[in-house]
Amino acid sequence: MSEDTLAIMDLTRNISADWYAHKIRYPWLLPGFNKYLSRMPNDFWDRTPHHTNLVETAHAGTNRSTQINLRPLEAIQRCVARTTYLHMLNILKHPIEQELLMLR
């Protein structure tokens, strides 16, 4: 074998050993990758998607609804608008509650 081949084999061995050492530090990690190490029933494992597309889509939607990843000015404007809306809602709600109390 050439010196390059031996160097690549050694590098691969080190990478594999490092990968495995990392995985055994966390007892839940390998069962998450391997159906036969998992305590999950086989039919559940088989029906679970092998990708994270749904989670990624939900994450993007959550960022939009919670106003994460906005430019600073846009975030401030939305915050001010929401605070103003809630303040106005409270002002409008108060007289209605007073009238309802008087009707009792």
Give a structural overview.
- This protein is mainly α.
- It has five helices and no strands.
- The N and C termini lie far apart (95 Å).
- The model has no long low-confidence stretch (mean pLDDT 76).
Feature tags:
104 residues; 77% helix; 0% strand; mainly alpha; elongated
Summarize the structure.
With 104 residues, the chain is mainly alpha-helical. It has five helices and no strands.
Rg over CA atoms: 28 Å
How many strands, what sense, and barrel or not for the largest sheet? none
| Proportion in helices | over 70%
Structural class, from helix and strand content?
mainly alpha
The SSE string, one letter per element, is HHHHH
Quantity of strands, as a count: 0
Low-confidence spans: none
* Total count of helical runs of at least 4 residues: 5
Gap from first CA to last CA: 95 Å
General form: elongated
Mean pLDDT: 76
- Percentage of residues in DSSP E strands: under 5%
How are the SSEs ordered, and which strands pair?
Layout: H1 3-25, H2 29-33, H3 42-47, H4 53-66, H5 72-103
